[in-house]
Specification:
The chain has 493 residues and is an alpha/beta fold. It has 2 domains: 28-187, no CATH class; 189-476, Peptidase S8/S53 domain (Rossmann fold), CATH 3.40.50. It is built from 8 helices and 20 strands. It has helices at 27-48, 97-106, 147-169, 268-279, 299-313, 345-356, 441-459, 463-476; strands spanning 68-71, 83-92, 112-113, 124-127, 183-191, 203-204, 225-229, 253-254, 284-288, 296-298, 317-320, 322-325, 360-364, 374-375, 383-388, 406-409, 413-416, 420-424, 427-431, 435-438. The strands form 4 sheets. Strands 1, 2, 3, 4, 5, 10, 12 and 14 form an 8-stranded antiparallel beta sheet that branches. A 7-stranded parallel beta sheet has the order 8-9-7-11-13-15-16, with helices on both faces. The longest helix has 23 residues, at 147-169.
Amino acid sequence: MSSSHGGSGAPPPEPERPWFDDDLPNDRQRARYRRQIEQIRDGLVEALNSPDRPGWGAPRSDDRRIALDTYPPGVEDSADALFVYRTDTLLVAPADLDDVRADLGRHEVANEEDGRATDDLGLRVLLLEPDTRSVSDRVGPERVPSPVERALAALDAEWEVRRSGSAEGAEGGEGSQPALRSVSYDRVLHVATASACPATDPEPVRDLRPLPPVAADPMLGNGVKVVVVDTALPVQSNHRELVTDKSWLKGVTGDPEVGMTRAEYRGHGMFVAGVLRTMAPKATVHVEPLVFSCGGVLESDFAFRLNEVLKEHDPDIVNLSAGTFAGPGGTVPGPQVASHGHVLVTYDSLKVMMDGLDCLLVCAAGNNGDTEPFVPASTNWPVAVGALDAYGRRARYSNHGSYVDVYARGSDLVNAYPQGPTVIAGHSLDFPDGMARWSGTSFAAPMVAGLVAARMSWSGENAEDAWASLKGIAIVNNVGGRPILGPGDADRP
Protein backbone atom coordinates (compact mmCIF):
# COMPACT_ATOMS: atom_id res chain seq x y z
CA MET A 1 0.00 0.00 0.00
CA SER A 2 1.28 3.46 -0.84
CA SER A 3 2.79 5.62 1.86
CA SER A 4 0.12 8.28 1.16
CA HIS A 5 -2.35 5.95 2.85
CA GLY A 6 -0.18 5.24 5.83
CA GLY A 7 1.72 2.22 4.49
CA SER A 8 5.35 1.57 5.33
CA GLY A 9 7.95 -1.12 5.02
CA ALA A 10 8.91 -0.65 8.67
CA PRO A 11 8.06 -3.36 11.20
CA PRO A 12 4.79 -3.03 13.13
CA PRO A 13 5.06 -0.71 16.13
CA GLU A 14 4.42 -1.57 19.72
CA PRO A 15 0.81 -1.31 20.97
CA GLU A 16 -0.38 2.22 20.31
CA ARG A 17 -1.40 3.31 23.79
CA PRO A 18 -1.07 1.66 27.19
CA TRP A 19 -4.77 2.07 28.02
CA PHE A 20 -5.86 0.03 25.01
CA ASP A 21 -4.71 -3.56 24.61
CA ASP A 22 -5.85 -6.75 22.93
CA ASP A 23 -7.93 -7.88 25.89
CA LEU A 24 -11.08 -5.79 25.47
CA PRO A 25 -12.57 -4.43 27.57
CA ASN A 26 -9.68 -3.95 29.95
CA ASP A 27 -9.54 -2.24 33.34
CA ARG A 28 -7.61 0.78 32.09
CA GLN A 29 -10.03 1.36 29.26
CA ARG A 30 -12.97 1.02 31.62
CA ALA A 31 -11.45 3.45 34.11
CA ARG A 32 -10.95 6.02 31.37
CA TYR A 33 -14.47 5.53 30.03
CA ARG A 34 -15.93 5.75 33.55
CA ARG A 35 -14.18 9.02 34.24
CA GLN A 36 -15.24 10.54 30.94
CA ILE A 37 -18.90 9.46 31.23
CA GLU A 38 -19.12 10.92 34.72
CA GLN A 39 -17.41 14.13 33.65
CA ILE A 40 -19.74 14.56 30.67
CA ARG A 41 -22.83 13.77 32.72
CA ASP A 42 -21.96 16.00 35.67
CA GLY A 43 -20.59 18.81 33.52
CA LEU A 44 -23.61 18.88 31.25
CA VAL A 45 -26.00 18.90 34.21
CA GLU A 46 -24.11 21.91 35.55
CA ALA A 47 -24.15 23.65 32.15
CA LEU A 48 -27.84 23.01 31.47
CA ASN A 49 -28.86 24.30 34.89
CA SER A 50 -26.66 27.38 34.67
CA PRO A 51 -28.06 30.80 33.76
CA ASP A 52 -25.04 31.14 31.43
CA ARG A 53 -26.02 28.24 29.17
CA PRO A 54 -26.40 29.09 25.45
CA GLY A 55 -29.78 30.46 24.44
CA TRP A 56 -30.51 27.33 22.42
CA GLY A 57 -29.73 25.05 25.37
CA ALA A 58 -32.50 22.97 26.88
CA PRO A 59 -34.83 25.24 28.88
CA ARG A 60 -35.80 24.56 32.48
CA SER A 61 -39.57 24.38 32.16
CA ASP A 62 -41.29 25.73 35.29
CA ASP A 63 -37.82 26.25 36.80
CA ARG A 64 -37.30 22.49 36.97
CA ARG A 65 -33.79 21.20 37.44
CA ILE A 66 -32.59 19.14 34.47
CA ALA A 67 -31.27 15.70 35.38
CA LEU A 68 -29.32 13.11 33.38
CA ASP A 69 -29.06 9.37 33.93
CA THR A 70 -27.32 6.40 32.34
CA TYR A 71 -28.75 3.56 30.27
CA PRO A 72 -29.27 0.61 30.92
CA PRO A 73 -31.57 1.50 33.84
CA GLY A 74 -29.99 1.15 37.26
CA VAL A 75 -26.44 0.56 36.04
CA GLU A 76 -24.18 1.04 39.08
CA ASP A 77 -20.86 1.41 37.29
CA SER A 78 -20.65 4.21 34.71
CA ALA A 79 -18.18 2.06 32.75
CA ASP A 80 -21.14 -0.20 31.89
CA ALA A 81 -23.28 2.64 30.51
CA LEU A 82 -24.30 2.59 26.86
CA PHE A 83 -25.42 6.20 26.84
CA VAL A 84 -26.46 9.15 28.98
CA TYR A 85 -29.91 10.70 28.57
CA ARG A 86 -32.14 13.46 29.92
CA THR A 87 -34.62 11.89 32.32
CA ASP A 88 -37.67 14.13 31.78
CA THR A 89 -37.91 14.47 27.99
CA LEU A 90 -39.07 12.20 25.19
CA LEU A 91 -38.26 12.75 21.51
CA VAL A 92 -41.15 12.06 19.13
CA ALA A 93 -41.61 12.06 15.35
CA PRO A 94 -44.14 14.78 14.41
CA ALA A 95 -46.44 12.29 12.70
CA ASP A 96 -46.79 10.32 15.95
CA LEU A 97 -47.01 13.25 18.35
CA ASP A 98 -50.82 13.29 18.80
CA ASP A 99 -51.01 9.51 19.19
CA VAL A 100 -48.13 9.44 21.69
CA ARG A 101 -49.72 12.17 23.79
CA ALA A 102 -53.06 10.34 23.71
CA ASP A 103 -51.38 7.07 24.76
CA LEU A 104 -49.59 8.81 27.63
CA GLY A 105 -52.81 10.53 28.68
CA ARG A 106 -54.60 7.20 29.01
CA HIS A 107 -51.95 6.23 31.55
CA GLU A 108 -52.07 9.59 33.30
CA VAL A 109 -48.50 10.43 32.31
CA ALA A 110 -48.27 14.22 32.39
CA ASN A 111 -46.61 15.80 29.35
CA GLU A 112 -46.37 19.08 27.47
CA GLU A 113 -44.69 20.02 24.22
CA ASP A 114 -41.39 21.88 24.24
CA GLY A 115 -42.04 25.05 22.25
CA ARG A 116 -38.58 25.32 20.69
CA ALA A 117 -39.29 22.97 17.76
CA THR A 118 -40.05 24.72 14.47
CA ASP A 119 -42.41 23.44 11.79
CA ASP A 120 -39.52 22.58 9.45
CA LEU A 121 -37.81 20.38 12.04
CA GLY A 122 -38.85 16.72 11.92
CA LEU A 123 -38.62 16.37 15.67
CA ARG A 124 -40.80 17.16 18.67
CA VAL A 125 -39.84 17.12 22.34
CA LEU A 126 -42.25 16.22 25.13
CA LEU A 127 -41.53 17.51 28.62
CA LEU A 128 -42.60 14.98 31.21
CA GLU A 129 -42.92 15.45 34.96
CA PRO A 130 -39.73 16.75 36.61
CA ASP A 131 -37.25 14.17 37.84
CA THR A 132 -37.15 14.57 41.62
CA ARG A 133 -35.32 11.34 42.40
CA SER A 134 -32.35 11.37 44.73
CA VAL A 135 -29.07 9.66 43.84
CA SER A 136 -30.03 6.68 46.03
CA ASP A 137 -33.30 6.31 44.11
CA ARG A 138 -31.44 5.49 40.90
CA VAL A 139 -29.72 2.20 41.81
CA GLY A 140 -30.27 -0.79 44.06
CA PRO A 141 -33.33 -2.89 44.91
CA GLU A 142 -35.43 0.18 45.79
CA ARG A 143 -34.63 1.91 42.53
CA VAL A 144 -37.27 4.37 41.23
CA PRO A 145 -37.80 4.52 37.43
CA SER A 146 -37.15 7.84 35.72
CA PRO A 147 -40.04 9.80 34.16
CA VAL A 148 -38.82 8.65 30.73
CA GLU A 149 -38.86 5.01 31.80
CA ARG A 150 -42.42 5.35 33.09
CA ALA A 151 -43.53 7.03 29.88
CA LEU A 152 -41.94 4.33 27.72
CA ALA A 153 -43.58 1.62 29.86
CA ALA A 154 -46.95 3.29 29.24
CA LEU A 155 -46.34 3.34 25.49
CA ASP A 156 -45.31 -0.33 25.57
CA ALA A 157 -48.53 -1.16 27.43
CA GLU A 158 -50.58 0.67 24.79
CA TRP A 159 -48.75 -1.19 22.03
CA GLU A 160 -49.59 -4.51 23.71
CA VAL A 161 -53.27 -3.52 23.79
CA ARG A 162 -53.22 -2.71 20.07
CA ARG A 163 -51.35 -5.92 19.32
CA SER A 164 -53.86 -8.02 21.26
CA GLY A 165 -56.72 -6.28 19.49
CA SER A 166 -55.17 -6.93 16.09
CA ALA A 167 -54.67 -10.61 16.89
CA GLU A 168 -58.22 -11.09 18.20
CA GLY A 169 -59.75 -9.33 15.19
CA ALA A 170 -57.84 -11.35 12.61
CA GLU A 171 -59.46 -14.29 10.83
CA GLY A 172 -57.55 -17.52 10.52
CA GLY A 173 -54.65 -16.61 12.79
CA GLU A 174 -52.65 -13.81 14.34
CA GLY A 175 -53.01 -10.42 12.69
CA SER A 176 -50.23 -8.11 11.61
CA GLN A 177 -48.29 -6.37 14.33
CA PRO A 178 -49.18 -2.72 14.93
CA ALA A 179 -46.44 -0.18 14.35
CA LEU A 180 -44.47 1.16 17.26
CA ARG A 181 -44.67 4.88 17.84
CA SER A 182 -41.51 6.70 16.76
CA VAL A 183 -40.12 7.85 20.10
CA SER A 184 -36.66 8.03 21.60
CA TYR A 185 -34.56 8.92 24.59
CA ASP A 186 -33.00 12.40 24.47
CA ARG A 187 -29.44 11.04 24.50
CA VAL A 188 -26.17 12.89 25.00
CA LEU A 189 -23.87 13.12 21.98
CA HIS A 190 -20.26 13.30 23.12
CA VAL A 191 -17.03 14.27 21.44
CA ALA A 192 -15.32 11.70 19.33
CA THR A 193 -16.25 8.20 20.32
CA ALA A 194 -17.96 5.44 22.17
CA SER A 195 -15.04 5.77 24.53
CA ALA A 196 -16.62 9.15 25.32
CA CYS A 197 -13.33 10.78 24.44
CA PRO A 198 -10.68 10.75 21.71
CA ALA A 199 -8.71 7.53 21.37
CA THR A 200 -5.73 9.22 23.00
CA ASP A 201 -5.09 12.45 24.83
CA PRO A 202 -3.15 15.14 22.92
CA GLU A 203 0.64 15.13 23.26
CA PRO A 204 2.89 18.16 22.73
CA VAL A 205 5.21 18.08 19.71
CA ARG A 206 7.88 20.52 18.56
CA ASP A 207 7.25 19.91 14.85
CA LEU A 208 5.61 22.98 13.28
CA ARG A 209 4.49 21.03 10.21
CA PRO A 210 1.18 19.18 10.13
CA LEU A 211 0.95 15.46 9.45
CA PRO A 212 -0.45 14.71 6.96
CA PRO A 213 1.12 17.69 5.19
CA VAL A 214 -0.87 20.40 3.46
CA ALA A 215 -1.89 19.43 -0.08
CA ALA A 216 0.47 20.68 -2.79
CA ASP A 217 -2.39 22.30 -4.75
CA PRO A 218 -3.36 25.42 -2.75
CA MET A 219 -6.69 25.76 -4.60
CA LEU A 220 -8.17 22.44 -3.51
CA GLY A 221 -11.47 23.08 -1.74
CA ASN A 222 -12.00 26.44 -3.41
CA GLY A 223 -15.68 27.42 -3.38
CA VAL A 224 -16.72 24.59 -1.03
CA LYS A 225 -18.31 25.39 2.34
CA VAL A 226 -17.77 23.08 5.31
CA VAL A 227 -19.20 23.32 8.82
CA VAL A 228 -17.29 21.47 11.55
CA VAL A 229 -19.56 20.67 14.51
CA ASP A 230 -17.29 20.39 17.50
CA THR A 231 -15.82 22.22 20.47
CA ALA A 232 -15.07 25.92 20.16
CA LEU A 233 -12.11 27.67 18.60
CA PRO A 234 -10.06 30.40 20.30
CA VAL A 235 -11.57 33.16 18.12
CA GLN A 236 -11.61 36.94 18.10
CA SER A 237 -14.97 38.61 18.46
CA ASN A 238 -14.52 40.55 15.22
CA HIS A 239 -15.51 38.44 12.23
CA ARG A 240 -15.21 35.31 14.42
CA GLU A 241 -11.88 34.47 12.77
CA LEU A 242 -9.42 32.06 14.36
CA VAL A 243 -6.33 33.72 15.78
CA THR A 244 -3.42 31.56 14.61
CA ASP A 245 0.04 31.64 13.10
CA LYS A 246 -0.64 28.35 11.28
CA SER A 247 -0.91 29.17 7.58
CA TRP A 248 -3.25 26.27 6.75
CA LEU A 249 -5.82 27.54 9.27
CA LYS A 250 -5.94 31.14 8.06
CA GLY A 251 -9.51 32.28 7.47
CA VAL A 252 -11.16 29.52 9.52
CA THR A 253 -14.01 30.99 11.55
CA GLY A 254 -16.05 29.94 14.55
CA ASP A 255 -18.42 31.14 17.23
CA PRO A 256 -17.07 31.75 20.74
CA GLU A 257 -17.78 29.15 23.39
CA VAL A 258 -19.79 29.58 26.56
CA GLY A 259 -17.57 28.84 29.58
CA MET A 260 -14.18 27.14 29.45
CA THR A 261 -13.77 23.88 27.56
CA ARG A 262 -12.54 21.10 29.84
CA ALA A 263 -9.02 19.92 29.21
CA GLU A 264 -9.81 16.60 27.49
CA TYR A 265 -11.81 18.44 24.82
CA ARG A 266 -9.82 21.66 24.58
CA GLY A 267 -8.56 22.17 21.05
CA HIS A 268 -10.58 19.28 19.57
CA GLY A 269 -12.47 21.48 17.11
CA MET A 270 -9.28 23.33 16.19
CA PHE A 271 -7.40 20.09 15.49
CA VAL A 272 -10.29 18.69 13.41
CA ALA A 273 -10.45 21.90 11.34
CA GLY A 274 -6.68 21.73 10.85
CA VAL A 275 -6.80 18.16 9.50
CA LEU A 276 -9.60 19.11 7.11
CA ARG A 277 -7.66 22.12 5.82
CA THR A 278 -4.58 19.99 5.04
CA MET A 279 -6.70 18.13 2.48
CA ALA A 280 -8.64 21.17 1.22
CA PRO A 281 -6.51 24.31 1.84
CA LYS A 282 -8.95 26.70 0.14
CA ALA A 283 -12.23 25.39 1.61
CA THR A 284 -14.39 27.80 3.60
CA VAL A 285 -14.45 26.25 7.09
CA HIS A 286 -16.62 27.36 10.01
CA VAL A 287 -16.39 25.59 13.38
CA GLU A 288 -19.70 25.60 15.22
CA PRO A 289 -19.37 24.85 18.97
CA LEU A 290 -22.52 22.78 19.38
CA VAL A 291 -20.77 20.57 21.92
CA PHE A 292 -20.82 22.02 25.43
CA SER A 293 -17.59 22.66 27.30
CA CYS A 294 -17.94 19.35 29.14
CA GLY A 295 -17.75 17.41 25.87
CA GLY A 296 -21.44 16.59 25.40
CA VAL A 297 -24.74 17.94 24.09
CA LEU A 298 -28.32 16.67 24.21
CA GLU A 299 -29.65 15.34 20.91
CA SER A 300 -32.60 17.73 21.03
CA ASP A 301 -30.37 20.77 21.58
CA PHE A 302 -28.05 19.54 18.84
CA ALA A 303 -30.90 19.17 16.33
CA PHE A 304 -32.49 22.53 17.14
CA ARG A 305 -29.22 24.44 16.82
CA LEU A 306 -27.91 22.52 13.80
CA ASN A 307 -31.13 23.40 11.96
CA GLU A 308 -30.29 27.07 12.48
CA VAL A 309 -26.62 26.59 11.53
CA LEU A 310 -27.51 24.88 8.25
CA LYS A 311 -29.81 27.74 7.32
CA GLU A 312 -27.17 30.33 8.23
CA HIS A 313 -24.17 28.77 6.48
CA ASP A 314 -25.74 26.55 3.77
CA PRO A 315 -22.74 24.19 3.83
CA ASP A 316 -21.89 21.54 1.28
CA ILE A 317 -20.41 19.27 3.96
CA VAL A 318 -20.82 18.90 7.73
CA ASN A 319 -18.12 17.10 9.72
CA LEU A 320 -19.26 15.55 13.00
CA SER A 321 -16.57 13.92 15.15
CA ALA A 322 -19.06 12.97 17.87
CA GLY A 323 -21.76 10.42 18.58
CA THR A 324 -23.12 7.92 21.08
CA PHE A 325 -24.27 4.37 21.47
CA ALA A 326 -27.95 4.10 20.63
CA GLY A 327 -28.79 0.94 22.54
CA PRO A 328 -30.71 -2.07 21.18
CA GLY A 329 -32.09 -1.63 17.68
CA GLY A 330 -29.87 1.38 17.10
CA THR A 331 -29.28 1.05 13.36
CA VAL A 332 -32.09 -0.88 11.71
CA PRO A 333 -35.74 -1.55 12.61
CA GLY A 334 -35.82 -4.32 15.15
CA PRO A 335 -38.39 -7.10 15.58
CA GLN A 336 -41.94 -5.96 16.22
CA VAL A 337 -41.88 -6.24 19.97
CA ALA A 338 -42.69 -3.62 22.55
CA SER A 339 -39.38 -1.81 22.91
CA HIS A 340 -39.98 1.89 22.49
CA GLY A 341 -37.22 4.34 23.14
CA HIS A 342 -34.60 3.16 20.65
CA VAL A 343 -35.91 4.68 17.44
CA LEU A 344 -33.48 7.22 16.03
CA VAL A 345 -35.92 10.10 15.75
CA THR A 346 -33.21 12.77 15.91
CA TYR A 347 -31.23 11.30 13.04
CA ASP A 348 -34.29 10.84 10.83
CA SER A 349 -34.80 14.57 11.32
CA LEU A 350 -31.15 15.32 10.51
CA LYS A 351 -31.36 13.31 7.29
CA VAL A 352 -34.36 15.33 6.12
CA MET A 353 -32.48 18.55 6.92
CA MET A 354 -29.35 17.43 5.09
CA ASP A 355 -31.19 16.11 2.03
CA GLY A 356 -33.12 19.34 1.71
CA LEU A 357 -29.86 21.29 1.42
CA ASP A 358 -27.90 18.72 -0.64
CA CYS A 359 -25.49 18.58 2.28
CA LEU A 360 -23.24 15.60 3.06
CA LEU A 361 -22.70 14.49 6.67
CA VAL A 362 -19.32 12.89 7.44
CA CYS A 363 -19.09 11.15 10.84
CA ALA A 364 -16.50 9.50 13.04
CA ALA A 365 -17.21 5.78 13.50
CA GLY A 366 -16.15 5.74 17.17
CA ASN A 367 -13.15 4.48 19.11
CA ASN A 368 -14.15 1.51 21.23
CA GLY A 369 -12.69 -1.10 18.86
CA ASP A 370 -16.05 -2.79 18.34
CA THR A 371 -18.87 -3.29 15.86
CA GLU A 372 -21.49 -1.95 18.28
CA PRO A 373 -23.73 0.65 16.56
CA PHE A 374 -22.44 4.17 17.13
CA VAL A 375 -24.80 6.89 15.95
CA PRO A 376 -25.14 8.84 13.78
CA ALA A 377 -22.34 7.05 11.88
CA SER A 378 -24.18 3.71 11.99
CA THR A 379 -27.53 5.01 10.71
CA ASN A 380 -26.51 4.05 7.16
CA TRP A 381 -26.94 7.45 5.49
CA PRO A 382 -23.94 9.59 6.59
CA VAL A 383 -20.38 8.77 5.51
CA ALA A 384 -19.01 6.69 8.41
CA VAL A 385 -15.21 6.89 8.76
CA GLY A 386 -13.00 4.43 10.59
CA ALA A 387 -9.34 4.98 11.46
CA LEU A 388 -6.07 3.48 10.23
CA ASP A 389 -2.82 3.51 12.15
CA ALA A 390 0.42 4.89 10.78
CA TYR A 391 1.12 1.55 9.07
CA GLY A 392 -2.14 1.39 7.13
CA ARG A 393 -3.76 -1.20 9.38
CA ARG A 394 -7.13 -0.69 11.03
CA ALA A 395 -6.35 1.09 14.27
CA ARG A 396 -7.25 -1.19 17.14
CA TYR A 397 -9.36 1.51 18.77
CA SER A 398 -11.42 2.09 15.62
CA ASN A 399 -14.97 0.83 15.41
CA HIS A 400 -15.51 -1.34 12.38
CA GLY A 401 -18.08 -3.54 10.72
CA SER A 402 -20.62 -3.22 7.93
CA TYR A 403 -21.66 0.34 8.72
CA VAL A 404 -18.15 1.83 8.25
CA ASP A 405 -17.96 3.18 4.69
CA VAL A 406 -14.28 4.08 4.48
CA TYR A 407 -11.06 4.18 6.50
CA ALA A 408 -8.45 6.93 6.64
CA ARG A 409 -5.45 7.53 8.83
CA GLY A 410 -6.47 8.64 12.31
CA SER A 411 -3.43 7.68 14.40
CA ASP A 412 -0.59 9.97 15.44
CA LEU A 413 -1.72 12.91 13.34
CA VAL A 414 -0.03 16.24 14.03
CA ASN A 415 -1.89 19.52 13.81
CA ALA A 416 -2.73 22.81 15.49
CA TYR A 417 -3.64 22.94 19.17
CA PRO A 418 -4.18 25.86 21.60
CA GLN A 419 -0.81 27.20 22.67
CA GLY A 420 0.31 27.13 26.29
CA PRO A 421 0.09 25.00 29.44
CA THR A 422 -2.87 22.82 30.40
CA VAL A 423 -3.70 19.89 32.67
CA ILE A 424 -5.07 16.70 31.07
CA ALA A 425 -6.08 13.67 33.11
CA GLY A 426 -4.12 15.03 36.05
CA HIS A 427 -0.92 15.59 34.07
CA SER A 428 0.53 19.05 33.44
CA LEU A 429 1.40 19.55 29.78
CA ASP A 430 2.70 22.49 27.79
CA PHE A 431 2.11 23.13 24.09
CA PRO A 432 4.63 25.95 23.48
CA ASP A 433 4.41 25.73 19.69
CA GLY A 434 0.65 25.25 19.46
CA MET A 435 1.00 21.78 17.93
CA ALA A 436 -0.10 18.35 19.15
CA ARG A 437 -0.05 14.69 18.21
CA TRP A 438 -3.50 13.07 18.56
CA SER A 439 -5.31 9.89 17.52
CA GLY A 440 -8.91 8.87 16.93
CA THR A 441 -11.65 8.38 14.38
CA SER A 442 -12.38 12.03 15.21
CA PHE A 443 -9.44 12.92 12.99
CA ALA A 444 -9.94 10.32 10.26
CA ALA A 445 -13.37 11.86 9.57
CA PRO A 446 -12.14 15.38 8.65
CA MET A 447 -9.52 13.85 6.37
CA VAL A 448 -12.34 12.28 4.35
CA ALA A 449 -14.49 15.43 4.57
CA GLY A 450 -11.52 17.44 3.29
CA LEU A 451 -10.96 15.03 0.41
CA VAL A 452 -14.61 15.37 -0.63
CA ALA A 453 -14.27 19.17 -0.54
CA ALA A 454 -11.03 18.98 -2.52
CA ARG A 455 -12.58 16.88 -5.27
CA MET A 456 -15.69 19.08 -5.46
CA SER A 457 -13.56 22.15 -6.15
CA TRP A 458 -12.28 20.89 -9.49
CA SER A 459 -14.69 18.15 -10.58
CA GLY A 460 -17.90 20.17 -10.58
CA GLU A 461 -19.62 17.39 -8.64
CA ASN A 462 -21.88 18.06 -5.68
CA ALA A 463 -20.93 16.55 -2.33
CA GLU A 464 -22.84 13.28 -2.78
CA ASP A 465 -21.40 12.68 -6.25
CA ALA A 466 -17.88 13.62 -5.15
CA TRP A 467 -18.18 11.14 -2.28
CA ALA A 468 -19.45 8.45 -4.68
CA SER A 469 -16.41 9.01 -6.91
CA LEU A 470 -14.05 8.86 -3.94
CA LYS A 471 -15.73 5.73 -2.64
CA GLY A 472 -14.88 4.04 -5.95
CA ILE A 473 -11.25 5.06 -5.46
CA ALA A 474 -11.37 3.80 -1.86
CA ILE A 475 -12.59 0.41 -3.03
CA VAL A 476 -9.71 0.17 -5.49
CA ASN A 477 -7.31 1.15 -2.67
CA ASN A 478 -8.78 -1.50 -0.36
CA VAL A 479 -6.61 -3.58 1.92
CA GLY A 480 -8.19 -6.70 3.38
CA GLY A 481 -11.54 -5.62 2.00
CA ARG A 482 -11.46 -2.25 3.78
CA PRO A 483 -12.00 0.78 1.49
CA ILE A 484 -9.24 3.32 2.13
CA LEU A 485 -8.70 6.99 1.31
CA GLY A 486 -5.63 9.12 1.89
CA PRO A 487 -3.77 12.24 0.80
CA GLY A 488 -3.64 12.59 -2.98
CA ASP A 489 -6.83 10.68 -3.67
CA ALA A 490 -8.74 13.89 -4.42
CA ASP A 491 -6.04 15.59 -6.50
CA ARG A 492 -6.82 16.78 -10.01
CA PRO A 493 -6.29 14.02 -12.60
